[in-house]
Amino acid sequence: MIRKFLRLFKIVRVSVRYGLDEIAISGFDKPRISKFLDTVFFWRDLSTPRAVRLRRALEELGPIFVKFGQVLSTRSDLFPIDIVTELSKLQDRVPPFDSDLAIQMIEESLGAHPDELFARFERVPVASASIAQVHFAALKDGTQVAVKVLRPGMKKLIDEDVALMHIAANFINKLWADASRLKIQEVVQEFDKYLHDELDLMREAANASQLRRNFAESKLLLVPEMYWDYCSSGVIVMERMHGIPVSQIERLIEAGVDLKKLSSDGVEIFFTQVFRDGFFHADMHPGNILVSIEPETFGRYIALDFGIVGTLTDYDKDYLSQNFLAFFRRDYKRVAEAHIESGWAPKETRVDELEAAVRACCEPIFDRPLKDISFGQVLLRLFQTSRRFNVEVQPQLVLLQKTLLNIEGLGRQLDPDLDLWKTAKPYLERWMGEQVGWRGLVERLKAEAPRYSHIFPQLPRLAHQALTVASERDVETRALLALLVAEQRHTNRLMSFFAFFIGAFVVGAVAYQVYARVL
């Protein structure tokens, strides 16, 4: 408890030190409040630009706050450009930790000094993020690799912050009527799980291997190969990837990359991960995405940092596909029906009322490019609608919602004229045809064929065994019935004898009484 209190005190202290309170109330016409705060906290210096102060505060508060800043950095439609530009530095320019600590971590994890493991190891990190930092190196055979090393002390710091989040969630549940509907505690639990998963770099390596296998035949996405002999929970070694960060638009244009195609490819990659594989990269901020300029892979995306991935069940994929497709077709009635059928909205909800509410939220944004859409306003209206109809937030889809924000922000940077609806609709229609139509049936039969191929030759024997068992059971059943009938007959005879005995006894007793009186 003392540790939690100290952590809470640090959050408050850092917030005051960097003037986050001043940033929070800057959008309100409250000069008296600002003057009061400046008087109370007279010792702080607010001469530094607000965006710089916000970035430094998030960096000082640790990995959870840095990740929060990474999400904000993709929302140029919701936040001022100075804040978005400064927070973009959190994507891969978090202050690195000492290289001696990185070398010590490599020795502890892999059992040898980097000079013994590699032909070359660069002490200066090439990138530093909230959870780990990366050093370039070369294997003994000359293969160029990237060495990712976990930051020391991460588990303790994350445990403290997540504990505070749980306390805050419990507090909100008691004070806010909408808290139970929004499932805040479940959302925090999901966030807790994924943050701790990031602390195991072997899990990240396995995620990368799976994603690489899923896109092995793809011409859209590249995923680095993992070198398993150099991987552990604290250090992983992967293929070094060469490309331009997707956020550096001018460099991409100079290299001749088609930004419109790149934007469209990004949409297809996202929907392929979600609906085909049910396994998607869930931390797709610009710092984790490169674009290849190598001649043989020119214009392809390069994915990095696989610490957080999302998974969807077949039920989730089917539900989402129906909603997306109905949404893109402007079939708001089907959207409303799907919400009620899935249990997201109460069964007593009127379809026509929910349909009208969804239409009012979504209709204004169709047939318009990303640059003309305020998703902040759309999300606000959707939230108000969900509250009105008691629609429940699904914790298992929190990562998907986060990824959608990243994708939309990325698309806005690459091609503000992108028509998201026209780009995504054909892919979803094709996917639905593959899943529901005859093509989908054929594909599922192909998938199930290996499982049942060894059963077909055994069918005659299995059928004979089944008939034999049925026959034996039939004989046993007849024998049991005969036994029951015999037992019933025996019981009837006993009852008849017993009744005869009782009757004779009564008659004898009456005759005796009559005879005694006559005498």
UniProtKB/TrEMBL annotation:
<dbReference type="InterPro" id="IPR011009">
    <property type="entry name" value="Kinase-like_dom_sf"/>
</dbReference>
<dbReference type="GO" id="GO:0005524">
    <property type="term" value="F:ATP binding"/>
</dbReference>
<keyword id="KW-0472">Membrane</keyword>
<keyword id="KW-0418">Kinase</keyword>
<keyword id="KW-0997">Cell inner membrane</keyword>
<feature type="binding site">
    <location>
        <begin position="126"/>
        <end position="134"/>
    </location>
    <ligand>
        <name>ATP</name>
    </ligand>
</feature>
<feature type="domain" description="Protein kinase">
    <location>
        <begin position="120"/>
        <end position="498"/>
    </location>
</feature>
<dbReference type="InterPro" id="IPR000719">
    <property type="entry name" value="Prot_kinase_dom"/>
</dbReference>
<dbReference type="GO" id="GO:0005886">
    <property type="term" value="C:plasma membrane"/>
</dbReference>
<dbReference type="InterPro" id="IPR010232">
    <property type="entry name" value="UbiB"/>
</dbReference>
<keyword id="KW-1133">Transmembrane helix</keyword>
<keyword id="KW-0812">Transmembrane</keyword>
<keyword id="KW-0547">Nucleotide-binding</keyword>
<comment type="similarity">
    <text>Belongs to the ABC1 family. UbiB subfamily.</text>
</comment>
<feature type="transmembrane region" description="Helical">
    <location>
        <begin position="494"/>
        <end position="515"/>
    </location>
</feature>
<dbReference type="InterPro" id="IPR045308">
    <property type="entry name" value="UbiB_bact"/>
</dbReference>
<keyword id="KW-0831">Ubiquinone biosynthesis</keyword>
<dbReference type="GO" id="GO:0004672">
    <property type="term" value="F:protein kinase activity"/>
</dbReference>
<keyword id="KW-1003">Cell membrane</keyword>
<protein>
    <recommendedName>
        <fullName>Probable protein kinase UbiB</fullName>
        <ecNumber>2.7.-.-</ecNumber>
    </recommendedName>
</protein>
<feature type="binding site">
    <location>
        <position position="148"/>
    </location>
    <ligand>
        <name>ATP</name>
    </ligand>
</feature>
<dbReference type="InterPro" id="IPR050154">
    <property type="entry name" value="UbiB_kinase"/>
</dbReference>
<comment type="similarity">
    <text>Belongs to the protein kinase superfamily. ADCK protein kinase family.</text>
</comment>
<comment type="pathway">
    <text>Cofactor biosynthesis; ubiquinone biosynthesis [regulation].</text>
</comment>
<feature type="active site" description="Proton acceptor">
    <location>
        <position position="283"/>
    </location>
</feature>
<dbReference type="Pfam" id="PF03109">
    <property type="entry name" value="ABC1"/>
</dbReference>
<keyword id="KW-0067">ATP-binding</keyword>
<dbReference type="InterPro" id="IPR004147">
    <property type="entry name" value="ABC1_dom"/>
</dbReference>
<keyword id="KW-0808">Transferase</keyword>
<keyword id="KW-0830">Ubiquinone</keyword>
<comment type="function">
    <text>Is probably a protein kinase regulator of UbiI activity which is involved in aerobic coenzyme Q (ubiquinone) biosynthesis.</text>
</comment>
<dbReference type="GO" id="GO:0010795">
    <property type="term" value="P:regulation of ubiquinone biosynthetic process"/>
</dbReference>
<dbReference type="GO" id="GO:0006744">
    <property type="term" value="P:ubiquinone biosynthetic process"/>
</dbReference>
